[in-house]
Amino acid sequence: MAEIQENNIPKVYDPKSFETKWYSYWEKRKLFHAEVNDKPAYSIVIPPPNVTGQLHMGHAMDNTLQDILIRYHRMRGDNTLWMPGCDHAGIATQAKVEESLRAEGLSRYDLGREKFLERVWAWKEKFGNRIMSQLRSLGSSCDWDRERFTMDEGCSRAVREVFVSLYEDGLIYQGTRITNWCPRCNTALSDIEVEHENEAGHLWHIRYQVEGTDQYIEVATTRPETMLGDTGVAVHPEDERYTDMVGKTLILPLIGRRIPLFADSYVDPAFGTGAVKVTPAHDPNDFDMGERHNLPQLKVINNDGTMAADTGKYAGMDRYECRKQIVKDLEAAGALVSVEEHEHAVGHCSRCNTTVEPLVSKQWFVKMEGLAKPAIEAVQSGKIQFVPERFTKIYIGWLENIRDWCISRQLWWGHRIPAWYCDECGETSVSRTDLCKCPKCGSEKINQDPDVLDTWFSSGLWPFETMGWPDETAELKKFYPTSTLVTGYDIIFFWVARMVMMGLRFGKDIPFRHVFIHGLVRDEQGRKMSKSLGNGIDPVEVIDEYGADTLRFTLVTGNTPGNDTRFSKNRVESARNFANKLWNASRFMLMNLDGYDADFVPAPEDYSLSDRWILSRYARTAASVTGGLDNFELGEAARTIYEFIWGELCDWYIELSKGTLYNKDNERARKTVQYVLAYILEHTLRLLHPFMPFITEEIWQKVPHAGESIMISQWPAGEDNKIDEAAEAGMTAIMETIKSIRNMRAEVNVSPAKKSAVLLHFTDEKLRDIFDANQRYLFALANAEPLTILPAEAEKPENAMAAVVNGVEVYLPLKGMIDVEKETARLQKEMASLNQEIERTQKKLGNEGFVAKAPVAVVEKEKAKLSENEEKRKSIAERLEYLASL
Question: Is the whole-model pTM more than 0.90?
Answer without folding.
Answer: no
